[in-house]
Amino acid sequence: MNVPVCLAWIASGPLWALFGLALYLLLHLGLCLRIVMQRRPVGESLAWIFIIFAMPFLGPAAYLVLGELRLGRRRALRAIHIAQPIRELLEELPGRSRVDWSRTEHRFKSLAEMSWRTIGVPAMGRNHVELIDSWQQAFARLIDDIDQAQSTVHLEFYIWNEGGEADAVAAALGRARARGVVCRVLVDDMGSYRFLRGAQAAELRSAGVDVQSALPGGLWRVPFVRIDLRMHRKIVVVDGRIAYTGSLNLVDPRYFKQDAGVGQWVDAMVRIEGPAVEPLAITFLSDWFVESDDQADELSESGDLRPQPARGQAIVQVLPSGPGIAGDAVEHVLLTAVYSARSELVLTTPYFVPSDPLRMGLVAAARRGVKVIVVVPARVDSRLVRYASRALQGELMEAGVRIAAFGDGLLHTKSVTIDGEHCLFGSVNLDPRSFRLNFEILLAIYDRPFAERLRALQQSYIDRSELVDLQSFRQRSQLQQGIESLARLASPVL
Q1: Which of 133, 267, 419, 447 is catalytic?
Q2: Which helix (H) or strand (E) holds 168?
Q3: Which of 156, 184, 201, 463 is deepest in the core (most CB within 10 A)?
Q4: Which residue among the candidates 154, 234, 332, 422 is catalytic per the annotation?
Q5: Is 481 within a domain?
Q6: 3-state DSSP call for residue 334?
Q7: What is the average pLDDT score of the chain?
Q8: Is 244 exposed, middle or buried (0-12, 13-18, 19+ CB in 10 A)?
Q9: Global pTM?
Q10: How many CB atoms lie within 10 A of CB 75?
Q11: 447 is catalytic
Q12: Which of 269, 295, 318 is the last residue of a domain?
């Protein structure tokens, strides 16, 4: 039955059918008008309109649940309340550490200035940065630092999963609290759902460790908050003098998602000493005071917030991002870095669904002679992401971008090196969710020795990967290409 005949049939039917049709059309048109008036990126707007009309009932429901940035009234009020104290703390940072740009290329100073004006955090000089390229070493160093803590231990993670070395961290927190150290743990409510409601969290609370969930979910909250907005940051700050960040969740890969069929997760972290620890501490405390019931005037009393002496030569810029924090800021930073590349650009990410601007930037870089390599896992734990990613890879390879499929587990490290001289490293995936929806943390490190070490780690990933062959890629079945093309339509909202 075609549409005109269907409409004629409804028009000849009972009055309630006409009334239902009117409501149906008003709902769809109203949602589409709302999407257009919000002036989102064009691809995202078209993707939502497609979803709404392609799935007549599920589409509108999906948009009402997942389509708008609703953080909840209480959380929004807490964020407003804490904004001014945080702003004042950030304004003090430029005087904390002078940056000697004479040791770096002039373009890095321009990148840092753009990032500062976009996100509000300046670059900090005189840091010691250590790349930790194995989860075993990361846990060992973290536990040792917790055991040496004297005043505070602050941990913020997307996922805390019980078992193995994660239990050893919990034990270290218990020992620290017994010494009188203030211990705070902030974990995402959905990513750490089992942990928050399990025996280990209860034991930590009984020991005096403050355990707090971030962005609580639940079906009863659906009318009030968007439940897929997640706290994706990984931050550790010990005594305000040592900090960690990167891609590793508080999980032992031997016990985490072993039934997902993707192998062990492969991660890396960075350990920092020096002035750049303070903006990471500010980021944690900002998140903590928004999510907890603590008072904002306690912020300045935290032992974490104090200037740190010079520990090395690295220039580090801490770049937090998330809903309400300079929209698209992290994507602007990444795009500027991509366009600054002269000879080589290497990117590693578990979820590669580039936005249109990033895709065009990578294509433009390859076409102007830059060696561009994107390293992704051969298998990921999201079928939709896998299909959408493959739909975008063909155009990139046609332009000369090399796609390396890592086959030794789920490569979870998120990193970008530019000409082996400057790098981006943190929790940000190369997909729209990380750019616009998740609360993320990214480091821009303007230091050739560190960039060279990170580039060597990336090369070890490439050596354990297989380059995707363009000719074989073109020979995918029509059915597979069709599924991937459909998934690509939803890529702006993944």
Answers
A1: 419
A2: helix 165-178
A3: 156
A4: 234
A5: yes
A6: helix
A7: 87
A8: buried
A9: 0.88
A10: 17
A11: no
A12: 318
Determine the structural domain holding residue 23 and report its residue range. Answer: 3-66
Do residues 31 and 101 both lie within one domain?
no
pLDDT of residue 87: 87
Residue type, 387: Y
What lies within 8 Å, CB to CB, of 298 at 6+ separation is: 289
Same domain for 37 and 175, yes or no, is: no
Q: What is the pLDDT of residue 2?
A: 47
Instruction: Kindly state whether residues 432 and 478 are assigned to the same domain.
Output: yes
User: Of residues 332, 414, 422, 447, which has the active-site annotation?
Assistant: 414
Q: Tens digit of pLDDT for each residue in 347-361? A: 999 999 998 899 999
Instruction: Establish if 258 belongs to a structural domain.
Output: yes
d(CA 4, CA 1): 8
Same domain, 98 and 243: yes
419 in active site: yes
Q: Which of 189, 412, 422, 447 is catalytic?
A: 412
| For residue 492, pLDDT beyond 70 | no
Q: What's the confidence (pLDDT) of residue 455?
A: 98
Candidates 154, 232, 332, 422; catalytic one = 232
Answer yes or no: 109 catalytic.
no
CA–CA dist 244, 253 (Å, integer): 18
At 263, list the tokens: 């192998």
Active site residue 234: yes
Distance of CA 41 to the CA centre of its chain: 19
- The predicted structure's pLDDT at residue 224: 63
Model pLDDT for residues 214-244, shown as the tens digit of each residue: 988 766 566 566 677 889 999 999 999 999 9
Is 412 part of the annotated catalytic residue set? yes
Residues 334 and 312 in one domain: no
